[in-house]
């Protein structure tokens, strides 16, 4: 007999189908072996597959790219919360997810939005200099920083939103950087960004909720604002609303269901 598992494909941080960042969401009754979850994520071939176990507002949540498990993923958390409320029958107004990054929260926002409560991860000095990043990226760089935890290792601040939009990565030059975020002050929003994570099997991530736990505090200080509107200017694009608190960041967005089906696994 085969094991049948539900799978939802959800576009997160967008109000329109084919926008935002697609995630696979796979609710489980009990955990599968790690190698099986990794194989499912590889087969799904999306930037993240989220697996969770739990009930009645309390869940344990894990995220896998096609090549590895990761410590922190925002868009697949938002997709999981949206799926619980809109497809899977969760009735509570607040969700708690136990993860490698500690407890993450989600509440219902206005007009169907999901509001995530995530750790605030402030910028830290980078081992790489502005001059090194300019040589690697072949564009002017105004600032560079890093983080002491989480997935992303290098943040580069470019001179304009246009520079972020038009940036073309040279993968040969970037071979020594597994994870790169480029950002700039926005023109019609507070700030923009793009995220590249080839070391995790994600050449460019369409919308990256986790990076905004650092980007929001950085731009909040630069712009002297606690509430910010951000846009990730990838080809698919996505919009995020951020609120910077002393220890946390609230990141909110919408989601759209693309497909819902079942996966068949052999019962071994």
Question: What does this protein look like?
Answer:
- This protein has 268 residues and is α+β, with helices and mostly antiparallel strands.
- The chain has two domains: 2-119 and 253-266, Diaminopimelate Epimerase, Chain A, domain 1 (Roll), CATH 3.10.310; 130-244, Roll (Diaminopimelate Epimerase, Chain A, domain 1), CATH 3.10.310.10.
- The chain is built from five helices and 17 strands.
- The chain has a 17-stranded mixed beta sheet that branches.
- A hairpin with an 8-residue loop joins strand 1 (2-12) and strand 2.
- The longest helix has 13 residues, at 74-86.
- The protein is globular and about 60 Å long.
- The model has no long low-confidence stretch (mean pLDDT 94).
Quick structural overview:
The protein has 268 residues and is an alpha+beta fold. It is 19% helix and 42% strand. β9 and β10 form a beta hairpin.
Give the tags.
Diaminopimelate Epimerase, Chain A, domain 1, 268 residues, 17 strands, 5 helices, alpha+beta
């Amino acid at each position: 007999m085969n094991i049948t598992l539900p799978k939802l494909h959800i576009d997160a941080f967008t109000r329109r189908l084919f926008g935002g960042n697609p995630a696979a969401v796979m609710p489980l009754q009990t955990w599968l072996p790690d190698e099986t979850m990794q194989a499912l994520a590889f087969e799904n071939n999306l930037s993240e597959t989220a697996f969770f176990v739990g009930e009645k507002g309390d869940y344990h949540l894990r995220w896998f790219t096609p090549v590895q498990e990761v410590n922190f993923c925002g868009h697949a958390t938002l997709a999981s919360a949206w799926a619980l409320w809109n497809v899977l029958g969760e009735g509570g107004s607040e969700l708690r997810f136990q993860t490698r990054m500690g407890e993450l929260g989600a509440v219902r926002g206005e007009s169907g939005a999901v509001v995530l409560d995530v750790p605030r991860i402030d910028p830290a000095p980078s081992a790489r200099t502005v001059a090194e990043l300019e040589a690697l990226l072949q564009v002017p760089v105004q600032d560079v920083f890093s983080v002491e935890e989480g997935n992303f290792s290098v943040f580069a601040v470019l001179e304009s939103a246009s520079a972020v939009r038009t940036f073309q990565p040279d993968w040969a030059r970037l071979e020594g950087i597994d994870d790169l975020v480029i950002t700039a002050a926005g023109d019609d929003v507070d700030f923009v960004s793009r995220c590249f994570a080839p070391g995790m099997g994600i050449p460019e991530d369409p919308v990256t909720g986790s990076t905004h736990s650092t980007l929001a505090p950085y731009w909040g200080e630069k712009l002297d604002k606690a509430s910010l509107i951000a846009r990730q200017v990838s080809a698919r694009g996505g919009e995020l609303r951020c609120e910077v608190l002393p220890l946390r960041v609230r990141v909110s967005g919408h989601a759209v269901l693309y497909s819902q089906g079942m996966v068949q696994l052999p019962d071994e």
